[in-house]
Amino acid sequence: MKQTIPFTKPQKNWLMLLLCCIFITTCAQAQQPDEELTLQKALQYALKANQDARKARLDQENAGYEIEEVRSGALPQISGNASLNYNPILQQSALPGDFVGQPGTTLLVAFGQKWNANAGVNVSQALFDKSVFTGLKAAKSTQEYYRLQAQLTEEQVIENVASLYYQILIQRQKIAVVDSNIKNTTRVRDIITGQFENGLAKRIDVDRTKVNLSNLHTQRQQLLNQVILAENELKFAMGMPIQLPIVIPAKDRSADALGAAADADFQIGTRLEYRTLTQQAKLLEFQKEAYKAEYYPSLSLSGNYSYQGLGNRFPLFKGTSQGVNWFDYASMGLTLKIPIFNGFATRARVRKADVSIRKLNEDLSKMSLSLNKDFENAKMQITNNQLILKTQEENAALAKEVYFNVMNNYNQGLASLTDLINSENEMTESQNNYSSALLDYRIAQIQLLKAQGQLKSLLVSAQ
Fold first, then answer.
1. H-type alpha helices, 74-202
2. Of 207-221, 278-292, 307-321, 412-426, minimum mean pLDDT range
3. H or E stretch including 240?
4. From which residue to which does the signal peptide run (predicted)?
């Protein structure tokens, strides 16, 4: 039989209070709206979660370990060794019998002991090795190269995320335009339907407004699908789980700051592409110096200490009575290596490195022209898109004014339904053209920031 646990009255009161608190907290969390994803938050999230950005930071971290690896060549190298050998059959050597007073005979004598144990430690220290010190400088330069690569990857992430973010804003703006048109067309449909019911309009007029309204709903659904696809692309570029919902604010808060940030001048030294290539040129110079280091002699100090045991018994104990003799020995020495001739291999490697440096200098010259071209093109695009945006804005305002004038004339019987539908389509087209021009203008601003090496200013200005 199941037994229930009785609660006292104070316990029941505390239990009810606890349940109420849990219920209120749950309801508050459920009603709390999701936090808006501004451009700045999107960029900050992407720099932390994007896989390419994280890989670039891992390369930068790995460069530090490369420095440690190269530095180890300039530090003492210590190793220990131990061995245990058993010789069941000792090798015999032939000796002339003259040693034992038996001239003309040959004696076979076994040398050595059946057991041989040895333990020791070896130490070496490079006193002079130009290749090691050159490699250490190259490793530090490599770390700087990967640091620049990480920053370049971050700029690429910022450019991609910002472009996708503005595409979503423009798509949502187009949806707002369609919603407004649906509202106006619904009002016209209701008016024509009332006129038809009173015998003042034709059935075909009602059907035409319904068809137009249906097309607007279809267009709205297509735009919604495009927004969902664009949001998924944005989340992918940010490194965010696709299933995680996001809320994009309706107002573009970063527009003014974006325009202000695009006023900086062009300096090629601010472009990470150029700085990265310049750092790569330094690495090639170090590679050339490393090859030249092969011409230099190297000097190293070495020493070892060993402890050895010999005997015909297992070398566990020490002493003649145990049949085992243990003794130690040590040595120290200097080793000087002087390269004399290697078939001109070093000379060939130095010349190959020099050719690589000259090729990279050509790449630097080409990149300089390319970056200057990108800057001039970005400035031209900004100017052109400003003019187009202003024209489309004026055109959209004029089309809207024409539409309402035609609607007023239609209500007074001074315009046909065809004129009204045509003016509505023209207004929709002009508003979409304005949205497209606005997107082109935002993308042009991003490209100008990229050309100026100022993309990271979006992290501060996109608030």
1. 130-197
2. 307-321
3. none
4. 1-30
pTM: 0.78
Please name the residues in contact with 107: beta carbons below 8 A apart, sequence gap of 6 or more.
Answer: 94, 95, 96, 97, 99, 100
**Angstrom distance (rounded) from CA 40 to CA 463:** 6
What percentage of the chain has pLDDT greater than the value 70?
87
In our burial notation (b when 16+ CB lie closer than 10 A, e otherwise), range 45-59 reads bbbeebebbeebbeb
State the Cα–Cα distance between residues 115 and 310, nearest whole angstrom: 6
For 244-274, the pLDDT digits (tens) are: 999 888 776 665 555 545 555 778 888 999 9
As given in the structure block, the two tokens for residue 310 are 């010999």
DSSP string, 306-328: EEEEEESS-TTS-BGGGTEEEEE
DSSP bridge pairs for 311: 115, 324
- Quote the CA–CA distance of 41 and 432 in Å, as a whole number: 28
Q: Are 231 and 248 in contact (CB under 8 A)?
A: yes
Domain 36-76+128-296+344-461 in this protein, CATH class = mainly alpha
3-state secondary structure of 72: helix
- Cα 172–Cα 176–Cα 179 angle in degrees, nearest 5: 135
Q: Sheet holding 115-128: strands in order across?
A: 77-86, 115-128, 298-311, 324-337
Q: Side chain identity at 302, as an amino acid letter?
A: S
Decide if 455 contacts 449 (C-beta within 8 A): yes
Question: What are the extents of the domains in the chain?
Answer: 36-76+128-296+344-461
Q: How far is CA 56 from CA 46, 49, 154, 162, in A?
A: 13, 12, 9, 20
CA atoms of 455 and 36, how far apart (whole Å): 22
Q: Which DSSP letter does residue 316 get?
A: T
Which of 144, 120, 134, 138 minimizes the C-alpha distance to 74?
134
